[in-house]
Amino acid sequence: MFRYRRYRVFLAFAAITLFALYKFGTSNTTWREAASTAAELKNEAEDALGFGSKPRPPIAHETKKLELQIPVASRTQALQTPPPVKQVPTPPAATRAALETPQQKPTIPSPLRPKPPAKPAPLADDAASLNSIEAIYWTKLPEKFPVPSQSLIKLPSGKPKKIPKIQHKFKPEDAAAKMDRLAKLERVKTVFKKSWNGYREYAWLHDELRPESGTFKDPFANWGATLVDALDTLWIMGLKDEFEEAAKAVDKINFLTTTRADIPLFETTIRYLGGLVAAYDISGKKYKNLLDKAVELAEVLISAFDTPNRMPETYYYWRPQFASQRHRASTRVVLAEIGSLSMEFTRLAQLTGEHKYYDAIARITDNLEEYQNNTRLAGMWPTYLDASGCGKPYIDLAPQVPLKAPAGMYETPAAPSPTQKLSPGGKKYVSLQLPDPIVLTPNGANPTYVPSNLEDSFALDTPDKRVVRDWEGKPLERRQLDVDLDAPPDSPANGAADVPIKTSAAAAAMPTPPECVEQGFAATSERGHEEYTLGGMSDSTYEYLPKQFLLLGGQIEKYRTMYEQSMDVVKQYLIFRPMLPNEDDVLFCGKLNVPPRIEDLVPGDLTGENAHLTCFAGGMLGMGAKLFDRPDDLEIAKKLTEGCVWSYNMTQTGIMPESFEAIPCKSTKDCTWNQTLYSETLDPRAEYRLSSYREQIQNYHSMYASASSWYEEQLAAMTAPPKPSVDPAFPVLATQTPVYADTLDKRQLADSMDDAEVEPTSAPPVGARRDEEEDPEDTPTKVQPSFKVPEVALQPTPTLPDFPYLYSPVAPLNHKDFVQNLIKEERLPSGVTKIGARNYILRPEAIESVWYMYRITGDNHWREAGWRMFMAIDQYTSTKYGNSAIDDVTKTSPTLNDDMESFWLAETLKYFYLLFETEDVLSLDDWVLNTEAHPFRRPT
C-alpha cells in the first residue's frame, strides 16, 4: 500500500500542468486542446496514485454559431452617392502668391476690455443677470448730501509765500567721483529695466508682476497699478520710449468698472491718481490723456465723500445698487487712510481749477485740526478714529417724583391690649389684608373674586350679586374688566373706546431721542488703550502736513501749526535711544499705548520698536527742520536715519526686517550697555521657571512615594494562584512523554490521519534534533496528549499590577544657557530683543530718508550707506524677471515670496536712482513728493 499525503497529489498535478503549458507554448495546439490534454494527464496521474476515483466527465463545449435576431442589422439600405465637389475658382496671381507664402503661427489676441455704454442699463433684479459675465459700470449718481457752491472751500489763489530753501547747495564734483556715480547710476537703471521688462512681458495692464513665476496678480482693482505707478520713474531715468508706450496704454484702463466690489480709497489715490498727475506734471504737461484719466478716476473717488459730514468711505462700494443708498463714514477708520488724500486732490484742483477736489480734503484737515488737542495724547492722533460724525445722544430725563411709604408703615405700634396676641419677640401680630379668593363659576363663566367678608357673599348662580374688589377692598367697576385679550395692547377694546389712555407727566415730557448728535472726529472707544505712532496706519498723515504746506505755497498756516504740535509730542513720548552693545548714538521711533487717562502712563507703555514704515520719519523731520527753522530737529533726523541704516547692517543679509524691538534708554544722552538688563529682558521668567521646577520636583517625589506605597500594597494583597485539583474519576496518566508516530502501526494511521480531528499540538521539545537533510517522509510526527487533561492544561500566569505612570519634570535651562539658546534659535542681532516681522517686501522708507538726508546735508556718507543697502537688496531679492519680496532677512539664504509690489518701481528704485543722479533732478526746492514718491511741481 502506498504512503501518500494530499499535498503530493497537488504537487504532481502542478508539475503536469506546467508540462502542458510548456507543450502548448512550443506547438500550434489550441487552448481548448491543451486544456483537454491536461485534464487527461491529471486523470492518469490520479489513477496511478491509487485514488480510484472516476475521472470527471468532459465539459461539453458549445460549437454552435451564435446568432442574434437584430431587426435593424438585417435591413439593407441602398448606397448613396455623395454630391459632387464644387470646383473652387482659381485665385488671381497676387492671391496665389500670398497663399503660397509660409504663414506664421497665429498669436492669441489679448482680450479687449468692454467699453461702457453711453447710458449704463439699470441692474436687473433676476438672478440670471447677477450671474452674467457682462461688466457692471459705475455711473455718476445724484449726491444725497451735496455741498452748495457758495459753501465750497476754495483753493488758495494768492501768490505763494517765500519759503526757506530745503536742498543743500552742492559743489561741482571731480571726474573720478562722477565716473563712480555714473557707474552706480547705470547699475540701478539696469535693475529697473529688468523689472519693467518683466512686467511688460508677463503682466502688462495688470496690477503686479510675480517676478519668479512670470505671472501676475491684481490686488488693486486690475487697473494696471505698476504701469501707472512707474510712469514718472520712466521719465526720470530717461526711458522716453518706454514712457511713450506706457502713456498710450493708460487709455486702455477703464476706471468705470472693476471686478473688485470695493475701491480702497487711500491706495487708489496715492498710486493711481498720484501717478497720473505726477506723470502729467513731470512730462511738461504734454500728455493730455494722463490728466483726462486722472479726472475720470477722481470723479469716481469723489463720490466716496457723499456722506452727511462729507467724510469719505475709505472703502468705496461703487456698484450703483449700493452706491445709490445713503451712507456714513465708518466709526473705525485708519488714520493714514483718511489723512493722506490731501496732496493728490490738491494738485488735481490746481491743474483743473475744480474747487470741489480741494473742498473734499480741506474738510478732513479741519476735522483733524479740531480733534488734535482733544485726543488722549494731545498733539497726535490715534491710529483709529471715529469719522462717522454721529455721536451718542444723551437725554436729560425729567426729575422723578419720590416714592412715599404707606401711612403708618414706619410708626411705632401701640401697646397690645390684653386680648391681642403677641409674637415671640413681644411684638403685636398684625393680620394681613389678603386678596379675595378666585372662584370659578359653573358653565365656564368668567372667574370672580369672592370676598372674605360674609356680608359680601353671593350665590354662584346670581351674577347680579357678584362683587369684585381691589386690594383696598373697594368695589371695581365692571367695565374695567371687560377687556378683549386678543385686541392690541395700545387700543381699547369691546366698547371701551371712550376710556382715555393715561400717560404720566414724566413720559409726556420726555423728548424724542435724535438719530445722532453731530460731532467731528472722535475716539473709537472711551475705554481701552489707544496706539500712537509714526509707523503703519499713521505715517503719511504726519508726512503730508509739511508737504501740503509746500504744495499750497505756504498760504495755509494751519499745516505748519499742526505739524509742529505733533512733532513736539513725538520727540517727548515716542523717540528714544536704543541700548546697543557698541553704544551707537542712533535713535528709533517707537509706538505708545495710551490708557484712558494720560496720567496712568507707565514706562512700559512705550514699545521700543523700530519698523521699516517708520524710517520715513528721518526725511520728514529733516525737511521740517529746514522748512520751519527747527535746527534741533535736523540732528534728530540724522540720528533717526542712522538708526535705520544700523538696522540694515545688523542682519545676515544686510536688509532691515519689517519690525523689531530693542530696549529704550531713559536718556538720549547717556545710554550705557547693560548685559544684565539685556539678559533679563530676553528671559524675564527665569526665577519663576526655576521655582516652578522645584515645586514640580517636590510634587513628583510626593506622587512617586504614594505610587510606590500603593504598588507594594497591591503586591502584598496578591495570593498564589490555586493549584488545579485532579478529578479522582479520571486516572492519572503514567507518562507525559510525547508519543511519536513511529511507535504506532501504520495501519492505525491509515484511516484516521486525513479525516480525524487531531488536537492542537505544541512545538517539539527544546532538545529535540532534526536533520535538515532528512527526508520529510521519514520525519516522525509528534502526537501530544490533549490539553483537556487537567494535569497538562496551561495555567494562567498571575498578572502583576501596573505601576502608576508619572511624568517626571524636565530640568529647565539656567538663565545664561536660556539666553544664549534664545539668541541662537531666533537669530537675534546684538541688542535686539524681539523680531516682530522678519520679511522684507522691497520697502522704500529707509532709502527715502537716506536720499532726503543727502539732499539736505550734502554729506557723501549717505551715498555710501545707500549703495550698501542697494547691493544687499539686489543680491537677495533678484529673480529672473525682476525682484521679489523675501521671507526672512535673518537667514543666509532667504526664500523668495514671488511678490513685487508696484512701489518697487515707483519708490524704492526711484530713490536709489535719485541718490546718484545730479542734484538738479527733482530738486526739493522745486518739487514735492507724495508718499508714493510721485513728484508734484510746487507753485511759483
TrEMBL record:
Residues 75-124, 750-784 are annotated as: Disordered. Keywords: Calcium, Disulfide bond, Glycosidase, Hydrolase, Metal-binding. The keyword Protease does not apply. One of its GO terms (biological process) is ERAD pathway. Pathway: Protein modification; protein glycosylation. It comes from the Eukaryota. GO terms for cellular component: endoplasmic reticulum; membrane. Ca(2+) binds at residue 931. InterPro entries: 6hp_glycosidase-like_sf, Glyco_hydro_47, Glycosyl_Hydrolase_47, Seven-hairpin_glycosidases. The active site is at 267 (proton donor), 539, 658 (proton donor), 845. Its EC number is 3.2.1.-. The keyword Glycoprotein does not apply. Disulfide bonds join 615-644. Residues 81-92, 108-120 have a biased composition (Pro residues). This is alpha-1,2-Mannosidase.
